[in-house]
Amino acid sequence: MLASGGKERFSIRWTILRGSALAGIVLIPSLSIFAILWVMLDDLFVAAIIGGIVHFVAMGFSLKLSKKFLTRKSP
């Protein structure tokens, strides 16, 4: 499917699939750390703070990942 100007458009399915994978890459580490710390420390507040920090660090890496993962290379 070509858009005006000859550039290839992203399909909705392609975008949803790759965006969901990227969201999982960001979400899984922060939720895992939160759950493990909550069980180990038995302190919801500390686990939430550390889980939030891990989440924002993962979001920082997601910018670099999204540039590689969500863009198509020209032929």
In short:
With 75 residues, the chain is mainly alpha-helical. 75% of the residues lie in helices and 0% in strands. It is elongated and about 50 Å long.
Structural class: mainly alpha
Tell me the distance between the termini.
Answer: 15 Å
Uncertain regions spanning at least 5 consecutive residues = 1-6
What does the largest sheet look like? none
Order of helices and strands: HH
Helix content: over 70%
Give the overall form. Answer: elongated
Average pLDDT reading: 83
Number of strands: 0
Work out the radius of gyration: 18 Å
Enumerate how many helices there are, as a single number. 2
Indicate the proportion of strand residues.
under 5%
Detailed description of the structure:
- The chain has 75 residues and is mainly alpha-helical.
- 75% of the residues lie in helices and 0% in strands.
- It is built from two helices and no strands.
- Helix 1 (12-41) packs antiparallel against helix 2 (44-69).
- The longest helix is centred in the middle third of the chain and has 30 residues, at 12-41.
- The chain starts with 11 loop residues before the first helix and ends in a 6-residue tail after the last helix.
